[in-house]
Amino acid sequence: MPYVLCYTKKNGTLASGCLHWVVNRKFKFDDSDLIVAFDLTVESFREVPMPKCAVEKFQIDVGVLGRCFCMVANYYDIRVDVWVMKEYGVKESWAKLFTVEQEVIFFCGTFTYLRPLAYSKSGEEVLLEQNHERLLWYDLRKKKIKNVNLGGLPTPFEAHICVGSLVSAEVNREYNEKQHNSGAEKIKSKKRDDFLSKGFKLVL
Questions:
Q1: Could you give phi then psi for residue 84, rounded to 5 degrees?
Q2: What mean pLDDT do residues 181-196 have?
Q3: CA separation for the pair 204, 195 (Å, rounded)
Q4: 3-class secondary structure per residue, 165-177
Q5: Which residues on neighbouring strands pair with residue 89, listed in sequence order?
Q6: Of 94, 178, 192, 203, which has the fewest beta carbons less than 10 angstroms from its beta carbon?
Q7: Residue 46 backbone phi and psi in degrees, to 5
Q8: Mean pLDDT score of the chain, rounded to an integer?
Q9: Are 135 and 128 in contact (CB under 8 A)?
Q10: DSSP at 64
Q11: Chain segment 53-90, per-residue pLDDT in tens
């Protein structure tokens, strides 16, 4: 990777066939952070165009919300802006979805980390993960927060959204076995050809 990872222990975020990380250009640590995408189809890196944010310095995080790539701009204990890229790869399609002010969730303590996870079924609320310690519902219309009471959660934790798939894992195994058997047949065939070429000489 021709960049420096800002979060070395964080997995890449998958969206639109690409893995995404928050990075910095090598040997330019005083520059602003970037978002880089690794395209799994062509296996190459490219920088993701950033939205036009406020001038103040902020911390970047990335995620997926409602199948759209999103960016979280954390303004250091003041507020968090959540941006959504409605058309992947198009800079003009960035739209600020909502802002969470620090004072809105004062009852849950200050947040150093806030990440959107999913919309509610009605689409009027967004599930948030705060400081790897709790889950919250944010009402987009009322701009209010309510705590999600779940017993037995470890501290800290990291929440992930799992998407169901109808693709069977057995298909991949069968494909691998076919590939393996095909490779074995090729080796046998080559050995046979080598034996014939060495064992028999045609005299004209």
A1: -125, 135
A2: 53
A3: 20
A4: CCCCHHHHHHHHH
A5: none
A6: 203
A7: -155, 150
A8: 80
A9: yes
A10: E
A11: 867 788 899 999 988 999 999 887 788 899 999 999 99
Answer whether 100's CB lies under 8 Å from 145's CB.
Answer: yes
SS3 for 119-130 is ECCCCCEEEEEE
Distance CA 12, CA 165 (A): 20
pLDDT for res 58: 86
List the structure tokens of 24. 């910095």
Q: How far apart are CA 129 and CA 49, in angstroms?
A: 25
Which tokens sit at 75? 């303004």
Angle of CA points 8, 11, 16, to nearest 5°? 130
Structure token pair of residue 122? 């009605």
Phi, psi of 188 (to 5 degrees): -60, -45
Inform me whether the pLDDT recorded for 185 exceeds 60.
no
Matching residue, tokens 């640590």:
29
CA angle, 154 as apex, 100 and 74 as ends, to 5°?
25
**Please, where are the H alpha helices in the chain?**
169-199
Round to whole Å and give the CA distance between 118 and 138.
11
Cα angle value 111/113/114 (rounded, 5°): 90
Q: Which of 45, 58, 53, 51 is nearest to 12 (CA)?
A: 45
Q: 27 and 36 in contact (C-beta within 8 Å)?
A: no
Structure tokens that stand for 145 in this block: 């927060």
Name residue 14's beta-bridge partners.
Answer: 19
Strand order in the sheet with 144-147: 114-119, 125-130, 134-139, 144-147
